[in-house]
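User: Run a structure prediction on this.
Assistant: Running it now.
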Amino acid sequence: MKNQASAFSRQWDSLPRSIEVLRRSGRELVDRLSSLKTLCLAAAFAPLMLVASTGQLAAAETLDANESDPSNMAWMVGFPPPADKVIAYPSSNYFSFPRLRWTFCHFREMQATRRVGRGLGPRSVLPEALDVNIDALTFSPLGSDSTMTWRESLDANYTDGILVMHQGQVVYEYYSGCLDAEGRHGAMSVTKSFVGTVAEILIAEGALDDAKLVSHYVPELSDSAFGSATVRQVMDMTAALDYNENYADPESDIWQYAAAGDPTPKPDSYTGPSNFYEFLQGVEQEGIHGDAFIYKSINTDALAWVIARATGKDFIDHLSERIWKRLGMDQEADMMIDSLGTPFSAGGLSLSLRDAARFGQTLLQNGEWQGEQVIPAAAVASISGGGDPEKFSGAGYKTLPGGSYRSQWWALHNENGAYSARGIHGQAIYIDPAAEMVIARFATFPISFNAAIDPTSLPAYQAVADYLVSKAD
């Protein structure tokens, strides 16, 4: 797997670095992408994560953010909608571009979900001090000599919603595509960072010991690869798992995982695992635990099982009680589930943009929210400090040089000490302690790779951070 990731990175580095180049060279990009063996390093819900076909990427060449806007495409409009405007099963329909630009705000209609309750308490207030100058800020995309404005970058990255907070105030808020302030959007693998945070809370409280083996908490995993890994190794994705996330291979493990998690009835001929728990018990070991970071989504689902066994409550209950209710979130959230009601913890959360920002702001404030210590400071310190860059270095993330991964969060180890939750197609909660800045973003970029989006988004974030710091001075 490590060799595959390195090969992927070498090929990816030679691809265009911005959507403008993509649109000029779309056909060349299609041909080169189709030859890659590992098409998604950051997986989310397996039944949904279909790699864009050649035809879909060709569509990306001709449909920009405005043209592919769901309101302009008129998806699901009418009583009933015209046949060519219907988005429905199979997943190859609803998760293809440009349809996915509608789907990401409508997962509750496409998948079985459980509610993440916010309780009956009041909504917390987000103070506002909107700054109209942010739109005009300029930066150079990675690997480019040209410049781009912040506002231009939003369209380039097919942004559905983005919110910037500085020193506890909302200074920028934008909605497009399928999203508005009242809507919820698929967070994809940003979900993992919520799981990691809950685990760190439990560690800080003494309810979970990250040095213990996974099998200590979940005996059913004793004979699997997870059984001999520590909780920390699973949290940091250094568990050595024989698990292939090659979406181009119909025989790869990712599709067995997809079938196991599908909550719909299985056909009579089906003989595989029937739910996430059964699948995890069959994962075998490949390599030595703790040697290297290799991004594999099933770590998160195993971690969520550990959380449930250690506490007697599943991840959704913890998310509601420890985060949603205590932060006074605007809305409830949705979590995808399998046939047993088990949360799809690796990527099944849908939430509002403002609630994503509340969560990020709480971490920025060392776990404190409006006078209450919601997340232990020790948990925040563990997350924000990042993991081992040496273990991360061989994974091939060229847009994150010197980065690391810890507790289901990505640490940039840049001058500002930034760290981020990241999900495919452009989902992010980006926390910059030096700039006292939080950015929450939802997007539906045509290509799933964050490596395609980072060249514009990361320097854009830095440009806003630099501006806010200079303004504060």
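The radius of gyration is 21 Å.
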